[in-house]
Write a structure and sequence with these properties.
Elements: H1 11-18, E1 23-27, E2 33-34, E3 49-53, E4 57-64, E5 82-87, E6 94-97, E7 120-125, E8 131-135
Antiparallel strand pairs: 1-2, 1-3, 4-5, 4-7, 5-6, 7-8
Length: 138
């Protein structure tokens, strides 16, 4: 399994994720959430920021099932999906991840024909703190 590459701006995101919390950076001056994390607010140019917890609810905005697998470390888990999830509280924030059947399930655990744009999802985390997504139960 691949591990995220962190930088100073994004390190808090991964630290919260390891604790099972989904948080996004927000401007402490104007309140605008932003992702990816960066030192300066693109809306008001303030350098003040905070990390806000979000519910982890969202909807699938886009997805792909790469053929063949794009990353050699994932070849054994193919076919797998990569989803782009729009967060419910912050629709301008879209996170990339994988849709899985349940927390801890392998990447290919959701058949591609079950994936739909607009489907509601909820975040789950791997043991290492990687955010993944599961379909919400209706």
């Amino acid at each position: 399994m691949l591990s995220p590459v962190t930088d100073a701006d994004g390190a808090p995101f991964w630290e919260y994720a390891r604790r099972g919390e989904l948080r996004v950076q927000a401007c402490a001056s104007c309140g605008e959430p932003r992702f990816p994390p960066r030192p300066c607010c693109p809306h008001c140019q303030s350098f003040a920021s905070e990390w806000r917890r979000v519910s982890g609810h969202g909807r699938i905005w886009s997805y792909v099932v790469p053929h063949p697998p794009l990353l050699p470390d994932y070849a054994e888990q193919a076919p797998y999906n990569v989803v782009v999830v729009e967060l419910a509280e912050a629709p301008r924030i879209r996170l990339v991840g994988n849709l899985v059947a349940e927390a801890g399930a392998r990447l290919g655990s959701v058949p591609p024909e079950r994936i739909r744009i607009g489907a509601r999802v909820q975040v789950v985390f791997t043991e290492g703190g990687l955010p993944q997504w599961v379909l919400e139960r209706s």
